[in-house]
Amino acid sequence: MQVIKRPPKMKLVGIERWSYREPPRFRRVLPPEIPGATSDWDFSQSAWNLDTGIYISSPSSIKLSSQTVILCKYAGTTNISQGQIVTWAKAEWGPGASYADAFEFWFRNQSPVGSINKTRDTYWWDANNGYTVAFDVYDQRLYVMRDLSLLYSTSGWLNKPSSWTSWNKYRITWWTDTGGAGLMIRIEWWNGTDWVKMVNDINDPQDKYAASSINRVGGGSGSCAVWFDDTEIWSA
Length: 236
Description:
Blueprint: E1 11-16, E2 41-43, E3 48-51, E4 61-64, E5 69-72, E6 83-91, E7 102-109, E8 118-120, E9 125-127, E10 131-136, E11 141-146, E12 149-154, E13 168-176, E14 183-190, E15 195-197, E16 202-204, E17 216-221, E18 226-235
Antiparallel strand pairs: 1-18, 2-5, 3-4, 4-18, 5-17, 6-13, 6-18, 7-10, 7-17, 8-9, 10-11, 11-12, 13-14, 14-15, 14-16
C-alpha cells in the first residue's frame, strides 16, 4: 500500500494573537484574526491569563497553568478534519527541574462547543474523544494519544529545541493519507531557518473521527505554566 507522505494544501482559518488589543468583529482582517481571546475559546478552568510581560507580539500572550486545556470555538474552526496548528510556545520549567512541566496540542476533538471532555494523565490531560500530542518537558519525551490509547511515545528526537523554556515555534499537521494508510501526523519545529521534523511522521490506520461533523483544535498546559502566542489554525 502506497503512503503519500504529503499533507493536502491548507488555508489559514484563524490566527489568535492572545491580545487585549483586538479588532472588532465587524471588521474584515487579513489574515483572519480571531477577535476574542476570552470569548472564542472554551477553557477547562480559570488558571489562565493574558500575560503582558511575556509575549512574541505585543501586548500579551496567553499563560496556562495547573493543567488548563483550551479548545477553539471560533466560526470555521470547529470541524477541521485535516489541518494544522502553528504556534509559539514556551514552558516554565525545563528537563529534570524541580517541577514537571509539559504542554500539549489537541485536534479532531469531539467535545461540543461549550465543553471539554478529558481524563487526567500524570502531568496533563488527555482528550477522552480526540487526539492529543503531549510534550513531556521534564523527561523530554513525546506522547501521542488517540482518545485514551497510546499511539506513540519516544524520547529519541530527530530534532528538538536546545531550550524548552525559550520561545520556540511548533507546527502540528494531521491529514488523511490518499494512499489509504489512514491518519498521518507530522510534528515539526522551526529551527530559525527551516521547518524540521522532530520525529518521523506518525501513522494511525484507524483514522478516527475523519468524517465527524465536530473536529475541534486546541492545546493545554501541564502542572506548571506554559505560554502560547501568535497561534495559527489551518484547515485543508
